[in-house]
Specification:
Helix content is 82%, strand content 0%. The protein is an all-alpha fold and 157 residues long. It has a domain of 52 residues. The chain starts with a helix and ends in a 10-residue tail after the last helix.
Length: 157
């Protein structure tokens, strides 16, 4: 049966125009000879790359160490950036969930007056918590002044 299929395929391929042949043969398995040539070329490529890497590492091992250190630094920076991004996304998700919960609480109030009161209360609370006008250096300076019990930071002679 397989011989009939193969012979039928080869006869059909002979009748087809070149474009149709190319479309059909693009999805066909390559022959053993073609696979052998592909494997040999891949092997040559890999051996050539390995030889070049070995040659570079023998010629300049210090440069190889520097490039490895540079790659490790870049990898660390990428991982840190990904972690910061995950944390930022989690904060945004948490904030959105809070806002949805607040909106649900407001919308489920019995009368409009209590809904408006609750909304004003919650928005004032939100503004108080997030109104931080100090940057990191200023915050550090304020904490240093607050921790100074003897007043040595402010009193200068």
């Amino acid at each position: 049966m397989e011989k009939k299929r193969r012979s039928k395929k080869s006869v059909d391929l002979k009748r087809m125009c070149p474009q149709q042949k190319a479309r059909i043969l693009a999805y066909a398995e390559p022959s053993k000879e073609v696979r052998a040539w592909m494997a040999a070329s891949q092997q040559r490529i890999h051996s050539r790359l390995a030889h070049e890497k070995e040659k570079v590492s023998r010629e300049n091992p210090l440069q190889d160490m520097e490039s490895k250190l540079h790659n490790d630094t870049l990898t660390g920076q990428l991982k840190a950036a990904e972690a910061r991004n995950r944390i930022r996304q989690m904060r945004l998700k948490c904030h959105n969930l809070k806002m949805q919960e607040i909106n649900l609480m407001i919308s489920s109030q019995a009368c409009v007056q209590s809904a408006v009161r609750l909304e004003l209360l919650l928005t004032n609370e939100k503004q108080r918590n997030h109104a931080d006008s100090l940057d990191q250096l200023q915050r550090q300076r304020v904490e240093e002044i607050l921790e100074d019990e003897k007043g040595l930071t402010l009193i200068r002679s």
